[in-house]
Design a protein that fits this description.
about 0% strand, mainly alpha
């Protein structure tokens, strides 16, 4: 572009005069560029809506003219609206491929200090979003006696800086572990375990084995890996079932349904024969024989066996406990009475143990056998029978 040279005879060109005077229209023929800038400055000084003060500051327009012009050209102008919309879309496109910001998940439980759930959560404190004890909890101790002074030699200064660098690497490892816990949702351990139980047993074993590799990949990639193996397991099971049909000479699904029904009937007959062989082992024990008869009656009626079979193991079983006249017997149902007779437990003690297990299960959201044994200090076999009975009857749930 050629530089402008002012001519003494002709004077400056008209466009140059407009730039000097700013008296040309921009948005409205009756408003000059100078008045547009004065309007914007007045709105900025007086505030939006104070049109009388804006008009007083401009001196060239009335209150109504200022309001109408501003609303028409700066608020409701479709050109400006589309420009802002395009800028918004551009900003969204700019941030579309960047990292997704962390969103808070479900509010974690707030267990009491030193409870079983608090230990399961590794001492996590939800109100502070931090842990009671950090990973490498005493890393700061190595820095407590370090003091940088001017008299330090170069070697001593380098050693102190090396200690600080080591401390920084330990802080990074601490933050890395926290990020893994946060990304994979490991704080709420109960919810994590419930999600894991939706898989078949074989996939659960794989889940347990591959959990240590979750720190290498992200949570989405890890879940996709497990889901793909769960799908593979389902496909393999279906292929095996179809191969069984093919081996049996079945070529349509109508015949397959008949085959499955007959197979189930054969399995039930085999189970009855197996139980008959079992009862021969207990034929000399009247108590064991009665248990077998009750179990057989439950199976014939379509129910699961209510009382497990007990073995002599070379010694005679103790006779069932007589509950007649014992306090608390009237509070038990028939199945609870049978349990107390079988494990030889007085009703009062059973009700106390049951209440303790129910309370702990409600607090924790579930109960493990090890926790039940820690709560009631009796014979471990009796604890196991009480725990299994409460699980089977639906009083408590497994953790």
């Amino acid at each position: 572009m050629e530089p402008y040279i002012k001519c003494a005879e002709c004077g400056p060109p008209p466009f140059f005069l407009c730039l000097q005077t700013s008296d040309f229209p921009v948005l409205d023929p009756s408003w000059t560029a100078q008045e547009e800038m004065a309007l914007l400055e007045a709105v900025m000084d007086c505030g939006f809506g104070n049109w009388q003060d804006v008009a007083n500051q401009m001196c060239t327009k009335t209150k109504e003219e200022c309001e109408k012009h501003y609303m028409k050209h700066f608020i409701n102008n479709p050109l400006f609206a589309s420009t802002l919309l395009n800028l918004k879309h551009a900003e969204e496109a700019k941030t579309a491929d960047t990292a997704i910001p962390f969103q808070s998940t479900d509010d974690p439980p707030r267990p009491t200090f030193d409870s079983l759930l608090s230990r399961d959560m590794a001492g996590y404190m939800p109100a502070r979003a931090d842990f009671i004890e950090e990973f490498d909890n005493y890393a700061e101790w190595d820095l407590r006696d370090i003091d940088f002074v001017e008299d330090d030699s170069d070697i001593l200064h380098a050693l102190k800086m090396a200690v600080v660098d080591i401390y920084h690497s330990r802080l990074k490892e601490r933050q890395r572990r926290k990020k893994i816990i946060r990304d994979h949702g490991l704080i709420n351990l109960r919810k994590f375990q419930l999600m894991e139980r939706r898989y078949p047993k074989e996939v659960q074993d794989l889940y347990e084995t591959m959990r240590r590799f979750a720190r290498i990949v992200g949570p989405m990639e890890h879940d996709k890996f497990i889901e793909s193996h769960a799908l593979e397991f389902e496909l393999r099971r279906e292929i095996k079932r179809l191969q069984e049909y093919r081996t049996a000479g079945i070529t349509n699904f109508c015949s397959a349904r008949t085959y499955d029904h007959l197979k189930k009937t054969r399995e039930e007959e085999r189970l009855k024969r197996t139980m008959l062989s079992e009862v021969l082992q207990y034929i000399q024990d009247s108590s064991a024989c009665q248990q077998w008869l009750r179990r057989q009656a439950d199976i014939d009626s379509g129910l699961s066996p209510s009382i497990p079979m007990t073995s002599n193991s070379g010694r005679r079983s103790a006779p069932p406990l007589n509950l007649t006249g014992l306090p608390g017997t009237e509070k038990l149902n028939e199945k609870e009475k049978e349990l107390c007779q079988m494990v030889r437990l007085v009703p009062g003690a059973y009700l106390e143990y049951k209440s303790a297990l129910l309370n702990e299960c409600n607090k924790q959201g579930g109960l493990r056998l090890a926790q039940a044994r820690a709560l009631i200090k009796i014979d471990v076999n009796k604890t196991r029978k009480i725990y299994d009975f409460l699980i089977r009857e639906g009083y408590i749930t497994k953790a």
